[in-house]
Amino acid sequence: MNKQEKGYSRRQMLEMSMGLGGLALAGGVGSVDARGTKRAPARMLTLVAKPEPIAIDTAKTAVIVVDMQNDFGSEGGMFHRAGLDITLIRAAVAPTAKVLAAARKEGIKVVYLKMAFKPDLSDAGAADSVNRVRHLRLGVGKVVRAPNGAESRILIRDTWNTNILSELTPEPGETVLYKNRFSGFYQTELDAVLRRARIKHLIFTGCLTATCVEATIRDAMYRDYLPVALSDCTANPVRADHESALSRIETFCGWVSSSEDFIKVLEARPAAA
């Protein structure tokens, strides 16, 4: 301990450290986020959406990226191997990348969800569970070769198959959570992570719109979050399923907007007085 440290009692030093911690988490002007970057001042914005515009507080907003991983959106992944068309999922990548860039610039929190199971499938459910049986039909757990020739396994944690798509790679310090059911809230830390950050507004991107995105949005609504799905940043192999899910979200669970409208409202600045 140096001489300056000896000049403070343990209680004084604790109070000082708590004060500094509170400053870093406050989210006000000049605050610092978990990635160590300076956050923009919080703003109240009105996002064009259906069924009506929604006011969002940028300090209480998070972008959720659902299952944008190789198994769903890359050649050699589970969907591609199963013969499912990944064209629409691929089409959602570019607008999602633009949304993430705009959100990070604004200091908005980004949270990634990844669908994956433990290597022994112990978290896939009982032998007769729908979750386990239906996923096994798609080859979950099967040993495959990644595009680079390395050994991998379908929908198993910490493999190429469950890596986030390279175009959407998380930045250091951003939250990445595994899930083993359609909903990102089921037996995960998602709710705790969001509540610690005082998040209220959730901007959803990812796939599949009609399964994991919709399930997570429904659970968000049940927990009194305000969810918004970005129509061109979410996708299903079949467009009709995507559009049907967006209709249900708009009608029952939250709002539907677009990447263009979200980015536009973030980039808009009040006119100088």
Describe the overall structure.
Helix 9 (209-222) runs parallel beside helix 10. The radius of gyration is 21 Å and the shape is globular. The protein has one domain (44-267): 3-Layer(aba) Sandwich (Rossmann fold). The strands form 3 sheets. Strands 7-4-3-8-9-10 form a 6-stranded parallel beta sheet, sandwiched between helices. A two-stranded antiparallel ribbon has the order 1-2. Strands 5-6 form a two-stranded antiparallel ribbon. It is built from 11 helices and 10 strands. It has helices spanning 3-6, 10-25, 70-73, 78-81, 87-91, 93-106, 130-137, 190-196, 209-222, 239-253, 259-267, and strands at 44-47, 54-57, 61-66, 109-115, 143-145, 151-153, 175-179, 201-207, 226-235, 255-257. Mean pLDDT is 88; it is low at 1-34. A hairpin with a 5-residue loop joins strand 5 (143-145) and strand 6 (151-153). The protein has 273 residues and is an alpha/beta fold.
Q: What do we call the CATH topology?
A: Rossmann fold
Question: Strand tally, please?
Answer: 10
Low-confidence stretches: 1-34
Instruction: State the CATH architecture.
Output: 3-Layer(aba) Sandwich
Task: Give the C-alpha Rg.
Answer: 21 Å
Shape: globular
What is the CATH superfamily? Answer: Isochorismatase-like
CATH class: Alpha Beta
Order of helices and strands: HHEEEHHHHEHEEEHEHEHEH
Strand line-up of the largest beta sheet: 7-4-3-8-9-10
Strand content: 15-25%
Helix percent reads: 25-40%
C-alpha end-to-end distance: 52 Å
Report the biggest beta sheet as strand number plus sense, adding barrel if it closes.
6 strands, parallel
Give the domain tally. 1
How many separate helices?
11
Chain-averaged pLDDT:
88
